[in-house]
Amino acid sequence: MAQFINKREDVVTEAIDGLLAISGGSLARLDGYPHIRVVLRNDWDKSKVALVSGGGAGHEPAHAGFVGAGMLTAAVCGDVFASPSVDAVLAGILAVTGPAGCLLIVKNYTGDRLNFGLAAERARAFGLNVSMVIIGDDVALPELPQARGVAGTLFVHKIAGALAEAGVDLETVTAAARRVAAGSKSIGMSLDTCTVPGSPKEDRIPAHMAELGLGIHGEAGVEQVDFIDARLAMEAAVSKLAAAMEDRSYVALINNLGGTSTLEMSVLAHELITSSIGARISHIVGPASMMTSLDMHGFSVSVYPADEAEIAALSAPVSMAAWPGVSTVKPVIVNMLPDGLTPIAPLSSEHRETREFIVKCCRILVAAEEDLNALDAKSGDGDTGSTLAGAARALINAIDRLPLSDHTQLYRAIGQELSQTMGGSSGVLLAIFFAAAGDAASSGLPMRDALKAGLARMQEIGGARLGDRTMVDALSPALDALGDGVRSAALAAREGANLTATLLKANAGRAAYINARQLEGHVDPGAEAVARLFEHLAA
């Protein structure tokens, strides 16, 4: 898999220098590249307790992204998924520790425990006051005596960081860090493994499966489960957390493991809030990429039963962009539509033949969803099928509200429904088509002429013409031939749709941005939808 890196051996140092260059001078690093990679606050005067954390790279923005006032004083960075050396950790401790002492925050992995632990011993031999807290928040394997440290570590960074910034002594900061570490619980889930720079990708997780309880270094999870949707995925994750939670309020941290889109993370936030533990979640950190696993397409949820003082510590503002802040969970607020936009519903009426015809058309489009999406992926953004199927489902759901016995009002009602439920330019254009057809029908024009008037208005506003490689290339000839029957219209629609596969330039729609080589041989998906609709009606 291609990645935006140069040499594998330089990826960590170059990433650190990139972070430092855009820090505005707030961060610095120690000399000693590439063996010693320590990022530290550039304004540090050693007057307060220092917080040092770190570990292998690949979890960005952790840990260097959380260095700054109110969180970490220094981060010690190892190679990708590899603990930093004892000398690197010791260098970080010596660089930031003053009379107030230093707290090491360490995730529970053997390499980190050993290297940070030995560095602490050597620092104490220098006469420094150093304490250490080990984070083991992963609940994937509850019977394991040494749980892994994962994203719950960030609760410790933020709460201990706020205390240290306030000038609290080392003993108090350490006690708070240990309390938060003991109370933090986390679980992760992913649809795919991560890609380690310079190494082949491990295809461990089959299609349509998700791995529950995997580690932040790509370690195999506790089990692979069927993946159905976001709701069931979140429920599988929180069921593990629920076993470790009490009946009290919690702060939840929703972490992107690196390769999950912002849209997906917002859906997962919704599912967490409405999940079986949602009633116990009072505040949320994220969703955001905080403790990642390179490009892993997954998420993790961490929970901690914070009291008021700890919520205040989590909410204390910091300058680091990597910390997303804390939000209070509130019910969704819904405001009324402005005057003039609230739709006036037409009087519904029943007409069995019209109902059956509309439902049949809608089911044809729903059945074609995947095929049309695949076709659109070759010349657009891959959603034509979903857009049309979504509108079709909405019309089926609205069928009892439609004026089925009054075709003039029916055209207008369909246009109104599509304008509300169908996204993108196609929704607007079809809404115009049906609204104009309704206007034409009200003046006494028969159905075919009314539909042609709708097409003319749609072309006038949308700008598409025959030969522009759009649905017009199938719809226009179909309506022209409709006077000779539905079968003639179907043949004309198919001929028009097939013609679009020979058109090497689109003058409208998303395909206008695609080069000729990608368009050649592929039917326009909108034209294909029209052709299939008429073909099924003629069958």
UniProtKB/TrEMBL annotation:
Which keywords accompany this UniProt record? ATP-binding, Kinase, Nucleotide-binding, Transferase
Q: Which GO terms describe its cellular component?
A: cytosol
Superkingdom of this protein's organism: Bacteria
Q: Which residues form the DhaK domain?
A: 7-323
Question: SMART domains from the entry?
Answer: Dak2
This protein's record includes keyword Repeat: no
Tell me which residues make up the DhaL domain: 352-539
In the UniProt record, does the keyword Transferase occur?
yes
Q: Which Pfam families match?
A: Dak1, Dak2
Q: Please, one GO biological process term?
A: glycerol catabolic process
**Could you tell me one molecular function GO term of this UniProt entry?**
ATP binding
Its recorded name reads DAK2 domain-containing protein
